[in-house]
Design goal:
Helix 5 packs antiparallel against helix 6, helix 8 crosses helix 10 and helix 9 packs antiparallel against helix 10. The chain has one domain. The chain has 209 residues and is mainly α. The radius of gyration is 18 Å and the shape is globular. Helices cover 73% and strands 0% of the residues.
Length: 209
């Protein structure tokens, strides 16, 4: 099978851009992932350029999810590239299906009020408010407190997981397959929340790389 060719994100510096997989030795991919993640995050934070931050937040929209995946999708969850991948996927999910996620989130608030407060979604939490949160979380990665951004994303996942689990309970008697799928989805969201929380701890200890 031919290896896919990816376009080079225009906002990356030359070193980071040249490191994106295209014909790279698979053994070098972990190093590539860390190099690009560090270049993007630390470079943006050093420049303090709102326009650059806005372009990075919309990286998937301008360059495609395949480009982001090529850089970071295989990275371990307790790394900077692994955290970035999860945040971009979360934002893309919200962007593509905001109405469904808003409904699940609203359901989950009753079971996870503390996490709802940490996530900080504006009330009432409709599709637009969820999109704003996803953008705010990624903006925080590039110009705010990265650990806070990670914790907000984790809290969002926990509230959403609660909503999905409650919805699964409602459908258990009438649609077992749907309920089972939703239960697995809730478990996956909880796992993602735990991974993001761990990344926040590592960032505070200056060990997230």
């Amino acid at each position: 099978m031919n290896q896919p060719r990816f376009r080079r994100p225009a906002m990356l510096d030359q070193q980071a851009a040249e490191a994106i997989p295209g014909g790279v030795d698979p053994a070098l991919l972990p190093e590539v992932a860390h190099t690009t993640a560090a270049a993007i995050v630390h470079g943006a934070r050093a420049q303090d350029d709102p326009e650059l931050v806005d372009r990075l937040v919309r990286l998937v929209e301008t360059e495609g999810l395949d480009v982001v995946a090529s850089m970071w999708a295989d990275s371990p969850p307790n790394t900077l590239p692994g955290a970035l991948w999860r945040l971009y996927v979360l934002r893309e999910w919200v962007r593509r299906d905001p109405a469904t996620l808003a409904a699940r989130y609203l359901t989950g608030i009753q079971a996870a009020p503390v996490h709802e407060a940490v996530a900080g979604v504006a009330s009432p939490p409709g599709p637009a408010e969820l999109k704003d949160l996803a953008d705010a979380v990624l903006s925080g990665v590039f110009r705010g407190d990265l650990d806070v951004a990670l914790e907000r994303a984790a809290a969002f996942c926990r509230v959403l997981a609660a909503g999905v689990a409650l919805d699964a309970d409602e459908h258990e008697a009438s649609d077992e397959r749907r309920a089972a799928d939703q239960t697995r989805g809730a478990a996956s969201l909880l796992r993602t929340a735990e991974e993001l929380e761990h990344c926040a701890v590592l960032w505070r200890a200056e060990r997230l790389d």
